[in-house]
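Quick illustration, no need to memorize.
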Amino acid sequence: LCATGPAVPAALRAAVGALAGDVAQAVVEACAESVRTSEENSHCEACLQAVALAARADPHLWYPLASPATGLVATLVGAVNDTKMAAGSRAAALAALIELIVASCEAAATDLNAMDGDLVEETAPQILPGLRKILLDFPEDEGTEAWAEGADEDANAPGDKEHTDDEGVGMLWDGALDACGRLLAHGGGAVGSRVSLHCMAAELLLCEAWQARHSGLLLQLRLACGEAAAASSGEGEAAVASTYAEAARHFHHSHPRVRWASLEVWARLLAAGLAPSRQAFDSAFESLAALGATDHYLRVRRRGLLVFLLATAEGAVLTLAHAEPLFHKVLIPQAASPDDDIRDACARIAQGFAGALGWIQPTGEDATMLPETCAASAEFTILWQEMTQVVGRGATDASCMGDQTGAVESGAIEWPHEWR
């Protein structure tokens, strides 16, 4: 079913498409059986995943499954909202539902019989209360210490496919966030669902529970990116500015997952080329520096460094006025680390900062090999020289530690390729 697509021979594609009715019936029956027994049903989950993958592979072939006549959408909505079903099955049902909605929206561009924004408007009110409950309940507080001291590449990073002992619960939480973003993106002129999504984010951010704040920030991030991509310039800029401000208000939250999420908002928006205003960055600078240099938890500090690394690409954000506090409070202390990746990140931030101000030319070489000279003011030249010396000492310390660095290396950052 998942091997469908324009590259498949027409006869084979038609034969596979002829199975659509049987697939819909199989899913309806499997979900009914799962509800009746209230037990984990691998057959049900497999059927749901097949629908999701097939609709994603060939939306124009599979969008008719969203027709009310099949009863499939109603079944999927029921599965998503059924808290007695296994979390993995609910996650698969949500994925199948969203893929069918997206398939219908894409098909509407060429097929007048396809449902587009109407399907979003009809479905969103039925699933948003359930999605809100999912976002409120996850993650559990257990394991926070281990998570906060873990490395960024660990599988249980929020927003990067969180996992717990029950992997399906993490998949369901991540799927709920993804579903909200895609409902906004494919709603077209569906004003009702758009307003409901923004209201849900606002409600989560007003709750006292840290889980709600954590999910609310990551939800608002997705909505802001969606608005920026679809809205007019003024509306998109307003959504992004509001999201930066909301995240900044959570920089000093007592829970590390919320602080991490607030930094994740800034990092993802910067990575998307949606820079904050100069005023917003200046107001948040001291808090960002504290999070990147002195936060109690390793994962939060690393996410703070990532924000500065991405900010160096925005020449209008970091200015000469930030040089002294950035180097003395963040980069120089961290550059002494025996951790290669921490030193590498600090050196790249320093290079990016000097490069953005036109003081050095990128060499394309190892970032930890900082140029010895920098065509800057005398004050900055002193900072630069101190930075190069500290980076060199850190590298020497790391090589001297030899086998003793195993514990450090096990927690090293593996920066995503697109951020190098």
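The first helix runs from residue 10 to 17.
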